[in-house]
Every structure is written in structure tokens, then in C-alpha cells.
Design goal:
Layout: E1 16-18, E2 33-39, H1 44-59, E3 64-70, H2 80-89, E4 96-98, H3 103-107, E5 115-119, E6 125-130, H4 135-148, E7 178-180, E8 184-189, E9 194-199, E10 203-208, E11 218-219, E12 228-234, E13 237-242, E14 247-252, E15 257-262, E16 287-293, E17 296-301, E18 306-311, E19 316-321, E20 341-347, E21 350-355, E22 360-365, E23 371-375, E24 387-388, E25 399-403, E26 408-413, E27 418-423, E28 428-431, E29 443-447, E30 450-455, E31 460-465, E32 470-473, E33 477-480
Parallel strand pairs: 2-3, 3-4, 10-33
Antiparallel strand pairs: 1-4, 2-5, 5-6, 7-8, 8-9, 9-10, 11-15, 12-13, 13-14, 14-15, 16-17, 17-18, 18-19, 20-21, 21-22, 22-23, 24-28, 25-26, 26-27, 27-28, 29-30, 30-31, 31-32
Length: 483
């Protein structure tokens, strides 16, 4: 933290606020510590900070004011509709100010996502911290400031009240990923913190987890998840990337038992290519997807920008590839770099990955771990362009699935609200026609020449015929049927 103190600049007029009826003024917060969080909601590190701030806000409910400044990286993040959906998807319950032109970012001299600025009880800047995993340091400073200003500490009413704009009730809430089989779907109903098994007609056959976020093993709905995402079905087991719990869970689809097989429930913060400990003692960082091959689970570890590998036979875990530094760098496993790997698929002896942070598609040799880039050029190179390899552009792709019969890769070009395909041999990227509006699709499954899409922000599952672009909405019903 900086030792120099200066008056915190007031929020300029004209910015749009969320979760409050009127703009929040720093001048009205005298007597309380204010924590201003500069972040972009697409960043996994900014998402971690939001979890940390929720804990601080609950503990210091009357003494601490938390304000998030949304400072967008991607073009799509400048849209009001995007910000509102992100607030609801991430369960943000404090004031948010949207800063699409980075006015506040420049006023405060911010240079990195995420940055947390602390303002003392007299309205002066105490300093700033960058990155996530700083909850304990922030709490020490907050507690110190409150203790030394006991004479100013008042229990007067806040100058604002929080009024979030909620999503309309629906069976699904921000569905993430999908697995499709001959007669059923497995859907990560991420906003409801559960996994649903649906019939081919959309009827709920079984539920794992309940609406409340938690980290509990158990039977069916007695278990608890937190923002589950990618899944892999292997015989009678469904493996789940339990992103919010930083863990890998296993569901026995016959007995309905949910158990944790890797992760501690807390986020890991150390960047390393060596993993000390066993799967159940090592701390993970936002695993987002899993795929299975030859007795091993490959894990997209979005928070540490790596691909991990978990042996289900030997019960060992290791970094498969990635140095842990956020970048777009090809090469051997120890030096290659990713940026928020979010989706995985397998085709022959290649592992394909979408890097959400660099809007890239990567190819990884399963024998050597060597990484090469199919689409993408850097952390800030994104857009919406079809074309071959280097000429193509995505914007924050979240999932990828292989079509072995046609040697094709399908990608959710999430922030462009499109589905795109890549020819494996040509690396040519083309947009897929769809006669239904897509709103930040986050998940894909390909089965018998049909694409199944998690149309995340609309809370629905689509079936798409990629040959003619016709889409149908799966009529998901909460009414249970016998398995």
C-alpha cells in the first residue's frame, strides 16, 4: 500500500450505476472505510476478488462500503445489458458503477485488473492493491482503520440502499455446460448451483445439489455445488468442474452419490509447475472444464492459467502444461502460457482448448504437452472475423467441442453471440447460421449431427441443426419423471 495519502476523487456525473437508485457519493460515506474495486467481470481474478469482497462486506456490514467499478476489457462488456447480466450471474449485491470509457480508471491511475483502492474514514486514499488473494491484507488494514477511528464510527444509516434487478424466475438460471447422450442431457444449471439430468424432452429426471451454494458431499440434492461448469461422463460417473468451490466432484449416476475427488474448497494462489500433495490436499483455482482420456482427467484450470492432469487410477495430480503466467505463449509445457483456459475437447491425440482471456484456440499434443495456437495473437487481440488461422478473431470464447466425423471444432464465440466452426486441417474459421437469438452462449455439446447450446443469458438450452441454422428451444420442465 502507498504511504502517501490524498483525497479520493469523487465519482464523476454521467456514469451508470447498478444495484442502487441514485449515484453513490464518497462525500456521504464519512466515518466508514470505502473499498473501491476496479475490475472487469470477464476476468477470473476479478471474479475471485468479488468473492473476497462479499466476505469482507458481510463481516463489516456497518463499517465498510464496497463499490465495484466495472472497467471493461472487451467491446461486448461496454453494453449495459452485459453488465446487468454479469451482476446477476456473479451474485453481486453491492453498488456497481459502469465505467465504459475508463474515466474513473484514469482518475485513480489504475493500471491493472483487478485493483482494490482503500479510502479511509476521512475520505483519503490509503493505497491500492492489485491482484486477487489479498483478503487477509485488506482486512488487516480495514480493522486498523476502524480501531483508530472509534470516535468517528457511527451506526447511522447508509446513504444508499441496495436494490438489485433480479432475473425473472425460470427452471434454468445461467446454464453453463452440457453433456448430451442418446436419451438424456446433463446440464450445469450454474446459477442454481446444481447439476440437472434431463430427458430428451427436457423433463427433469434427477438433480444433484440445490439452489444454495455450498461444498457438501452427499446423496442427490443433499449435496451442494458452487457455480458448477464443465462435465465429463465416463461410464457410470459424471465428473464435474465445481468452479466456485475450486474442486473436482464425481457423481455416481446410478447411486446418485456426490463425492469430492480433488481440491480443498479454497482457491489456490501459488503459481507453480509443481503440485505438492495429493488430489484432496492440493488447492485448485477455478477449474472450469474437464475431459477424459486413458484413465486421466484433463482440467482447464482457469485461475492458474494451466492445464492440469488427474490420474483416476493412481490418484495423482500434476500440471500437464502451462507455466502459470497469464499470456499467449506457445512452446513446451514448462514455458507455454495460457490466459484463462475455459473449455476443452479431444480429437485423436490432440487436446484443444479455448483461452477466454486471449480469445484464442490452442492445440496441445497429448504426448509432449507442446502447445501451439490455431486462432489468436495476444491478450488484447479480439474481434469478430472469419478466416484462416491468424486472420480469424474471437471475443471471449468459453467452450469448444469436437466433431470427429467431419474433423471439425465447434466454438462458442461467447461475447460475439455466435457459434463458429474450425476445420482442423485448414484452421479456417466460419460463423454458423442460427435463426434464434444467442446471448453469450457458454456451453456446447455435439451429438448425432446436432449442436446443443447453453444459451446462458436467456436461461435456455437450444438444439441447432448446423446444416440449415434452424434452432429449437428445449422445453425444460421442473416436473420430475422416473429414470
Amino acid at each position: 500500500m502507498s504511504a502517501t495519502k490524498s483525497r479520493a476523487p469523487e465519482f464523476p456525473a454521467g456514469l451508470e450505476w447498478f444495484n442502487v437508485q441514485d449515484p453513490v457519493r464518497l462525500a456521504d460515506q464519512a466515518g466508514r472505510v470505502v473499498l473501491i474495486d476496479f475490475g472487469t467481470f470477464s476476468s477470473i481474478h476479478c471474479q475471485h476478488v468479488l468473492q473476497e469482497l462479499n466476505a469482507l462486506r458481510r463481516r463489516y456490514r456497518n463499517e465498510l462500503v464496497v463499490i465495484s467499478v466495472h472497467s471493461p476489457k472487451f467491446t461486448a462488456e461496454k453494453r449495459r445489458s452485459h453488465v446487468l447480466k454479469a451482476i446477476n450471474r456473479l451474485h453481486i449485491n453491492h453498488p456497481v458503477v459502469h465505467d465504459p470509457d475508463l474515466k474513473l480508471w484514469k482518475m485513480y491511475g489504475t493500471k491493472f485488473w483487478p485493483t482494490q483502492v482503500l479510502v479511509d474514514t476521512e475520505g483519503c486514499i490509503l493505497g491500492a492493491m492489485t491482484g486477487d488473494g489479498k483478503k487477509s491484507q485488506l482486512e488487516l488494514i480495514i480493522q486498523y482503520q476502524l480501531n483508530r477511528n472509534t470516535d468517528q464510527k457511527e451506526n447511522r444509516k447508509l446513504s444508499f440502499s441496495v436494490h438489485p434487478t433480479r432475473e425473472a424466475p425460470s427452471v434454468l438460471l445461467f446454464p453453463g455446460r452440457i453433456v448430451a447422450t442418446q436419451d438424456r442431457f446433463y446440464v450445469a444449471d450454474s446459477g442454481h448451483n446444481r447439476i440437472l439430468v434431463l430427458s430428451s424432452r427436457g423433463q427433469v429426471m434427477h438433480q444433484y445439489g440445490s439452489a444454495g451454494a455450498g461444498f457438501i458431499d452427499g446423496h442427490g440434492s443433499e449435496a451442494a455445488f458452487d457455480n458448477p461448469q464443465g462435465m465429463a461422463l465416463v461410464d457410470e460417473f459424471l465428473y464435474v468442474a465445481d468452479t466456485g468451490n475450486h474442486a473436482i466432484r464425481r457423481i455416481h449416476v446410478r447411486t446418485n452419490e456426490v463425492v469430492t475427488i480433488a481440491g480443498t474448497g479454497s482457491a489456490g494462489t501459488t503459481v507453480s509447475v509443481d503440485i505438492p500433495g495429493t488430489p484432496l490436499t492440493v488447492s485448485m483455482s477455478s477449474p472450469t472444464d474437464v475431459v477424459f482420456k486413458n484413465g486421466k482427467l484433463y482440467i482447464a484450470m482457469a485461475g492458474s492459467h494451466q492445464i492440469w492432469r488427474l490420474s483416476l487410477i493412481a490418484n495423482t495430480i500434476e500440471v500437464f502444461t502451462g507455466s502459470g503466467y497469464e499470456d499467449l505463449q506457445d512452446g513446451p509445457s514448462g514455458s507455454a502460457a495460457f490466459s484463462q483456459p475455459s473449455g476443452l475437447t479431444l480429437l485423436q491425440n490432440r487436446l484443444y482448448c479455448v483461452d477466454a482471456g486471449s480469445s484464442a484456440v490452442r492445440e496441445i499434443d497429448l504426448d509432449s504437452g507442446i502447445v501451439s495456437t490455431i486462432v489468436g495473437e495476444g491478450l488484447f487481440e479480439f474481434g469478430d472475423e472469419d478466416g484462416a488461422g491468424a486472420a480469424a478473431r474471437f471475443q471471449y470464447p468459453l467452450d469448444i467441442v469436437a466433431d470427429p466425423a467431419h474433423q471439425m471444432l465447434w466454438v462458442t464465440d461467447t461475447y460475439n453471440n455466435k457459434i463458429k466452426r474450425i476445420g482442423v486441417s485448414t484452421t479456417y474459421v466460419s460463423s454458423t447460421s442460427c435463426d434464434h437469438r444467442l446471448d453469450e452462449p457458454a456451453g456446447l455439446a455435439f451429438h448425432e449431427d446436432t449442436l446443443y447450446i447453453a444459451n446462458t443469458n436467456v436461461h435456455e438450452i437450444l438444439s441447432l441443426n448446423p446444416n440449415n441454422g434452424r434452432a429449437e428451444v428445449l422445453n425444460v420442465s421442473e416436473e420430475f419423471v422416473e429414470i
